[in-house]
Design a protein that fits this description.
single chain, mainly alpha, two-stranded antiparallel sheet, globular, binds zinc ion
């Protein structure tokens, strides 16, 4: 965990720094389908927003979003819904 509670956007190759508790920068957050954003919102915890470690549930949701983002970055024409 970095100081000031900042982390990197989890979109592939994006270097934008975002506050702890956010999955990615504004552009990439809204590039995710709602089905992927919803569990990230549902599982974020106050400790994470304060710069603490994410919950296991959030990490799993993050991994799913990241996997989708990897495919989207490689092929922007993939189906927008899983
Ligand atoms: Zn980004």
């Amino acid at each position: 965990m970095s100081r000031l509670g900042l982390t990197h956007c989890r979109w592939p190759r994006c270097q934008i720094r975002v506050p702890a508790g956010r999955w990615g920068c504004r552009e990439h957050w809204y590039a995710l389908p709602w089905q992927l954003r919803k569990p990230l919102i549902a599982t974020v915890e106050p400790a994470q927003l304060a710069g603490g470690a994410p919950s296991q549930a959030w990490l799993e949701a993050s991994d799913r979003a990241r996997a989708w983002a990897e495919k989207q970055a490689a092929d922007p024409n993939q189906e927008p819904l899983l």
